[in-house]
Amino acid sequence: SSGHLDPGSHRKVLMKTGLILLILGHLNFITGALVHGTVLRFVLTARDATSLHYGVTNSASVIAALLGTSPIPSLPLLSLLQKWALLSLSSCSSLCCLCCLLGLLVAIGLTLGNQGRVLLAPCSIASISLAPVSRECPFDPTRVYSSTLSLWAISLLLEAMEIFFSIRCLLLTLELLRL
C-alpha cells in the first residue's frame, strides 16, 4: 500500500503531481480567459442574475486555476513549514475547484435552459429578427453559444482533473506529516 512509501518516493510523486497541477492550472486559466475575453466581457454589462453568475463563476474558475499553478508542490519538501503550506494550499485548491465545478455546471444548465439568450443579450434584438448577418453585436454571434458551451465543458473537465490531483497532493502531504 502507499503507506509504506519512504519520504523520498513521496517527494517524487508530489513533484510529479505538482507539475501536473501546474499544467492543468495554466490550461484552465487560458480557457477561462478565452471565455471572458470573447463573450463574458460583453455579457456582464447586462444586469441580470444569470450574467452575474457567469461572471462570478468564470472569475472564480480563473482564480482557482491560478491557485493550482502554485509552484509549491513541484518543489522538494524540506521543512515542516513547507509541508503545512502545501497541506493548506491543496485543501484550498480542492475546495475552490469543487465550487467552480458546481458553478460551471449551473452556468451550463442556465445556458442550455435559456438557449443562449443571455449570451446574445448585447446584440440588438431588432436586427436579430431581420437577418443573422445584420446583427449589431460586439462579437460574432453565430457560434457564441456552442463556443462558450464547449469552452465551459473543457473547463469542467480541467476542474475535475484539478480536484483529483489536488486531493492526491493533500493525501500525500497528510502521509508525509503522519496525520
Question: Can you describe this structure?
Answer:
There is one protein chain. Mean pLDDT is 79; it is low at 127-131. The longest helix is centred in the first third of the chain and has 37 residues, at 7-43. 73% of the residues lie in helices and 0% in strands. It has 179 residues and is mostly helical. It has 5 helices and no strands. α1 runs antiparallel to α5, α2 (49-68) packs antiparallel against α3 (80-113) and α3 runs antiparallel to α5.
Core attributes:
mainly alpha; 179 residues
Mean pLDDT: 79
Number of strands: 0
Percentage of helical residues?
over 70%
Q: If helices are DSSP runs of H or I spanning 4 or more residues, what is the number of helices?
A: 5
Low-confidence segments, given as residue ranges, are 127-131
The largest sheet is: none
Judging from the principal axes of the Cα atoms, what is the shape?
elongated
> Element order, helices and strands?
HHHHH
Proportion of residues in β-strands: under 5%
User: Helix/strand/pairing class, anyone?
Assistant: mainly alpha
Distance between the termini: 16 Å
Compute the CA-based radius of gyration.
Answer: 20 Å
Summarize the structure.
The protein contains five helices and no strands.
Topology:
Blueprint: H1 7-43, H2 49-68, H3 80-113, H4 125-130, H5 144-176
Helix pairs in contact: 1-2, 1-5, 2-3, 3-5
